[in-house]
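User: Structure please.
Assistant: Input sequence and predicted structure:
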Amino acid sequence: MTTPVPLDDHARASALNAEVARYARDGYTVESNADGQAVLAKVRRMGWFWNTVLVLLTGGLWLIYVIYRALNRKKEIVILSVDSNGRVHRS
């Protein structure tokens, strides 16, 4: 059984950038990318159609909830790191 050969920094960066590009296609934004690690974030969307209907039906009362949700959106954070063998790990 052979031991995997560690990759150079350029090959590791290429593997990480390819994985970051895949996440970016899915709607993630890059918050930081340095030294074999990338931090990505994705803001959860709000369903505006039903919220608009409920605002109209409740005479604007539902707007309080909509504003609260808009100001406190949840973020999904993903940390990608690449090891010396070029494997990308998600945490």
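Strands lie at 29-34, 37-43, 75-82, 88-90.
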